[in-house]
Amino acid sequence: MPNIMTSAAMRVRTGWVKHALQIISAFAISVFAAMPAHADPQRIAFLGIQMQNDNEGYEPTSDAERNRMRLVSAAFKKMLADSGKYTFVSVPATEQQKIEAGQAVGVCGGCEFDYGRNLNVERVAWIRVQKISNLILNLNVYIADVPNQRIGFVHSVDLRNNTDESWIRGIHYLVQNYLLPNAQG
Asked: 37 phi and psi, to 5 degrees?
């Protein structure tokens, strides 16, 4: 005997299928709506890295430490740029000279916001390394929100050795665990 469905049975089956498709569609829409929208990268300027050597008179800042400052700066900028969340804006030589000639960024009464406005960026960042001794150093990262004139990110990691490896490991740890904890890589 052929399998013949009554029109009532077909309406029930069709209604159930439509209802199931509506539920699946609603679920799919809610999943996509919950996903973060792709935001344009924020324009950021790196104002530099500063060394605060608490024992400068006894143990002057070395060429190796100045080189580590360059390595940390480059690694910091690369990690932020690679995240896709930030686009670095070059700091012109004239502005860099002002930064270097002025008071230390972060303790200058808001000069970091002035630099940010001059560079037309949303964020400015700088790093300060505090050398307490040759075995104890602190690496501090600051990011300021220029339009709102507030420092939005401040974090520090302790370094327990004064080597290229410890400095690079410190900046990687800080960025990966505090600044960009959900970034891939």
From this structure: -70, 145
**Same structural domain, 10 and 63:** no
Asked if residue 151 and residue 71 are part of one domain, the reply reads yes
Nearest in space to 71 (alpha carbons), one of 177, 169, 183, 184:
169
Which among 167, 184, 168, 164 has a CA at the least distance from the CA of 176? 184
Structure tokens at 126: 């700088």
Q: Residue 9: left if φ>0, alpha if ψ -120 to 50, beta else—which one?
A: alpha
How many C-beta atoms surround the C-beta of residue 34 within 10 A?
Answer: 7
Residue 9's pLDDT band (cuts 50, 70, 90):
low
Residues 6+ apart with CB under 8 A from 184: none
Domain holding 88, by residue range, is 42-179
Question: 77 and 107 share a domain?
Answer: yes
CATH of the domain at 61: 3.40.50.10610
Strands of 103-170 (E only): list them. 123-131, 137-145, 150-159
Same domain, residue pair 7 and 46:
no
Rounded CA gap, 111 and 105, in Å? Answer: 7
Could you report the per-residue pLDDT of 22-79, keeping only the tens digit for each? Answer: 655 554 444 444 444 558 999 999 999 999 999 999 999 999 999 999 999 999 999 9
